[in-house]
Amino acid sequence: MIPLAFDYEVAESVDHAIELLGQHGEEAKLLAGGHSLLPIMKLRLAAPTVLIDLGRLSDLSYVRDEGDHLAIGAMTRQCDLERDQTLQEQCGLVAYTASLVGDPSVRHRGTIGGSVSHGDAASDLPSALLALDATFTVRGSNGERTVAAGDFFQDYLQTVLEPDEVLTEIRVPKLNGAGWSYKKFNRRAQDWAVVGVAAVVERSNGSISSARIGLTNMGSTPLRATAAESALAGADPSSVAEATGSADEGTSPSSDIAASAEYRRHLARVLSRRAVEEALSR
Amino acid sequence: MTEAPEKFVGGGVPRKEDPALVTGRANWTDNIKLPGMLHATLLRSPYAHARITSIDTSVAKEQPGVVAVFTGDDLAEEYDKNPQANPAAVTGYDLSLEERSNGGASVTETGDNTGGETVDEKTRTFVAWIVTEDLKVPNHWPIARGEVNFAGDIVAVVVATDRYKAQDALEFIDVEYEPMDVVTDLEEAVASGSPLVHENLGSNEAYTWNLDTGDIEDAFSNAALTVKERYIQQRLIPNAIETRGIVANPDPINGGYTLYSSTQVPHILKAVLSAYCGIPEQRLRIVAPDVGGGFGSKLNAYSEEVIGLVLARKLGVPIKWIEDRSENYLATIHGRGQVQDIEVAADSEGRIQGMRVKLLADMGAYLQVNTPGIPLLGAFMYPGVYTFPAYSFECTGVFTNKTPTDAYRGAGRPEAAFAIERIMDALARETGLDPAEVRRRNFYEPFDEPTTTPAGIQYDSGNYQMTLDRVLELADYEGLRAEQQRRRESGDPVQLGIGFSTYTEICGLAPSQVLAALGAGGAGWEMAKVQMLASGKVEVITGTTPHGQGHVTSWSQIAADALGVDVDDVEVLHGDTAIAPYGRDTYGSRSLPVGGVAVHLAAQKVVDKAKKIAAHMLEAAEGDIEFEGGTFSVVGSPDQNVTMQRVAGAAYLADNLPEGMEPVLSEEYFFDPPNFTFPFGAHICVTEVDTETGFVKIRDYFGVDDCGPVINPTIVDGQLHGGIAQGVAQALYEEAVYDEDGNLTTGSMVDYLIPGAPELPNYTLERTVTPSPSNALGVKGVGEAGTIGAPPAVINSIVDALSPYGITHIDMPASPWKVWQAIQDSQGRDPGTRDADRSGRPSQATDSATSMDPEAGSTNPDAPTGGDRT
Amino acid sequence: MRRIQMTVDGRAHVAEVEPRLLLLHHLRENLGIGGVHAGCNTTSCGACTVHLDGESVKSCTVLAVQADGHEVTTVRGIMDNGLWHPMQQAFHEAHGLQCGYCTPGMIMASISLLKEKPNATEQEIREGLEGNLCRCTGYENIVKAVQLVQQHSNGQAQPAS
């Protein structure tokens, strides 16, 4: 329950962080809120030799209205997302999903950038960002690039981030009247999701014009329920139950002490139905 | 009872314990820092069963800050430094083992066994409850020698200047293991050809213990109906939020030792450690500082305590060891862990004629202080609040390559209450009776004198109808059934469940002779000393050791009323064997009915003596003195009076005492109760079960409990709340899961699900008062009531909600996954992998005596079958 | 080793620490604050909860170096001139504690909760304390304690300390 010793560097700017990453190579890890990294270091499941603390980069903590989308600084904490008026009004899914992460003390430390970069499929925010078609701005020694959420998550705890790259910003579209929902299923409020489902549903003339569904903990990365999304496109709200029956298609959930793969698939279907129904009611 | 009107007893006096606790000024073991103190950390086996082929500590010894590193062999000679320190007669604990080793019973060890006193000759163990003559006792070295028997067994100890350095050095100890076959499952362990946890014992069966009354064969052969069920009591991890910890301090003056330990049982610890470590009892002082919860897990003597003392002796400096949570999960005892086969025979009216119980009880890899005795506490409780003519109980203790089990809140009794209360619902189903009615038909008539039970003990007093009637009103039972009916008819995906539990429990451990007869070493008395100081203030010394139960407040109330003083003028001292040399500690809901009663009786002795002095001071005959409200006065002349405080002052000054009277008011009482106490109650749990996801929400929890007269209602409510919470936790959330290699899968609070505030309900509680004839206060104890009453109420409620599906049982913990799976099963669907297999437990026999047909099992033939709701 | 400075319970402290030192251990071992407790070490139980710049955090999952330049408040720092904080008083009055080991963390989490949601409903109070585990009380009286503080701050008289 005590981490192995490491060297500690404080990044004074994003460029400084990139420089430090270049200097220390793959043994270095970025430290944001630390609520994914420090627990595994304490269990000695991770032992980076250098931690580069981004905690002083207060200029990476913001939510900005940029016309058709909102820009969120990577060091914005989950509690800040939860409370942010602009997010609540323009993209309630992010504010609400953030409020379900961990517990209040965790959310006082944990950041959106940390959640995304850690790339944990059981984490709530990534699947919500997936359902939102968010884009991520990353910067490295080769400059800045933008990655779509759908391209960002590669495998179990693996993202497209290069060893010297820093995630700096998350952009989410304004929902402009689209319905949304996040259904987190867990046994205790403080736990990771057994399964979570994020839904963004657009309506026109009483039917569903499009639906995007993000799945938490249904595989090695956060996933989209593409079959259900196709079935929902153009569907009548009365057929949601049928359309979401395919919400687990293409997923590969694990079996563990919380749930069997079969049960997770079942939950994905039930929660997708409930999420889409709730989104339609918003 | 006190003569004076009771002023404090029965009132919700705010706790005296709180100020230090709410301001962060408590004295936890980890807050103790002594000059020159070193820190110990322990290397633990990652294997559940393996031979240690080599250990190399040389690199670890070179690490910064490291003072010493020891293996089991390094310390083997240390435990017996003074083998004559404790003749067996002194401790009582050593006796049986000494005799057994000498008698060459089953406890053979390595070595040539020629009777020579080499270190390998003697069986080392912590067990103090010798349940049968032929109990198999494995050798239990504090640090393993040659072989490890569970994941978490200690392999080496590092002593360093601080905790971080000590922890780091563990990584440099090089151990080679040769893995051995592992057994984790109880039924596999007793099957022939099973790997043996301890090969030298020749079997995994530690003991078999029987209890038989009446003609059981006759009862079953003449029964109109029988119901047979199998229940699994999953392993639980007690989870005191403060982990264990010790500071062992060598005393340079008398050559003895002070051990600060986060323990419930300083007195038991003193006896066991004195014997184990060869420290003369008069040179060992145990201090339990503020203790952050126990729940049975600190009712023990542990390897780490021995290691701490031995290191303090060897190195001559204070040694601190603080358990971290992963160690707590591996190395502190677990609770429960039983397979229960229970069968009842009944007449056509649902009246029980006989009961058979057969248990397999998981001992884990070693025997801790009470390990084999825990199921015996349950043996007497399977008949519960029901009377019938024949009972047969058999329990086999089974070794497995897992953490040792021992007492966890309720200890044997929650297991028994679960089995009987679950099978009463099965009986209701079989007979078509309402669950309340089938219970009522089998209750004892109300009684206030000891009444013999099917298990051959005597319940002290009871009125089970009263608590059941009241809880039915409190819960609006008819209204609930109507709502349930509405939900069933409308096909609501969220179904309502109503679950009963009418429980009793055995408390107030215990009459010494009964304990001795059960092999538990005897000494179930408790000591209290009430001393009045020169100023008239009062000190109460108690042998109980509170760790959250509020004894300081409650004992003050008892003493204040008996002596007629203010509650704030009483201080209660405890938890230090130098202050309270005699005591039998806190466990088994014994503190009030034994220790609290001792306080009352000691205070009465003070009053009796004070009365003589008052008579002398008032120049009146003792028979003419009356005592009320703290004042002695002459009958008929109320102006002639003297206060208790003035009498105390006079007794102290001793210049005007009756001829031959000893100075001061200071009296001790050793109370050895004539019988146990048997609190009881009736609980109703109301659940909402989401049949689509399997999620269970406890909507309401109603309880009517009877623990006799109440000293402090606020504290009693608190005990019930916490007890029910832990019972709900067993029913819905918690399980220590092992994989087939014997690794604990639920090794942290992330995976072992202790419920939080959002998961638990409010508790709607009332009380009835049926005094116990077993003691002067009529009190019964309440520490475990909720934990005993709650699990069957919760599971009965879930099964009730799902009865339209023909579901008759759900294993604990009733996770959403299991509930969903049961619904799938009931509809003939393939739910895929079963968790029961994954956790290495025997699969549940859900088919029991009743059918799986969705229609057949319903208590309500009009209810929908559940249909295709998902 | 790294030099850090932080204000703890209103007093400035400077120390040289290893970067891996947890804030929990810095407070307990270096500053001698025994009212911050280790419980689970996996960010689950909240026994180690303190305030960092006025917000609850779990000090077992914060490095001491991360608190460099910040303000830390423990249960020992919330009293006002020796008078208990209303939350301390309420836990006492409502019997919101038994063994008391989770209590400092529970009190700090509760204060943080009401600061953010002064009018929290019972359900919101329960959810707001989701990260703090108590093994003794079953939570009902903890929830009542928080509600007592709400009642007091809504115009009713402060309890005497």
Give a verbal description of the structure.
The complex is a heterotrimer of chains A (282), B (870) and C (161). By secondary structure, chain A is an alpha+beta fold. Chain A folds into three domains: 7-53, 2-Layer Sandwich (Uridine Diphospho-n-acetylenolpyruvylglucosamine Reductase, domain 2); 61-173, Uridine Diphospho-n-acetylenolpyruvylglucosamine Reductase, domain 3, CATH 3.30.465.10; 179-281, Enolase-like, domain 1. Chain A contains twelve helices and 14 strands. Chain A has helices at 14-24, 37-42, 78-83, 85-90, 92-98, 104-107, 112-118, 124-131, 149-152, 226-232, 240-243, 261-281, and strands at residues 7-10, 28-31, 50-53, 63-66, 69-73, 135-140, 143-148, 153-155, 158-159, 166-173, 179-185, 195-204, 207-216, 223-224. Chain B has 870 residues and is of the alpha+beta class. Chain B folds into three domains: 36-180 and 242-292 and 298-331, Aldehyde oxidase/xanthine dehydrogenase, a/b hammerhead (Aldehyde Oxidoreductase, domain 3); 335-508 and 676-838, Aldehyde oxidase/xanthine dehydrogenase, molybdopterin binding domain (Aldehyde Oxidoreductase, domain 4); 525-671, Aldehyde Oxidoreductase, domain 4, CATH 3.30.365. Chain B contains 24 helices and 28 strands. Chain B is globular, with a radius of gyration of 28 Å. Chain C folds into two domains: 2-77, Ubiquitin-like (UB roll) (Roll), CATH 3.10.20; 86-153, DNA polymerase, domain 1 (Orthogonal Bundle). Chain C has 161 residues and is α+β, with helices and mostly antiparallel strands. Chain C has a five-stranded mixed β-sheet, with helices on both faces. Chain C starts with a strand and ends in an 8-residue tail after the last helix. Chain C is built from five helices and five strands, in the order ββαβββαααα. In chain C, helix 2 (86-93) packs across helix 5. Chains in contact: A-B, A-C, B-C. Chains B and C meet through helix 1 and helix 21 of B and helix 1, helix 2, helix 3, helix 4 and helix 5 of C.
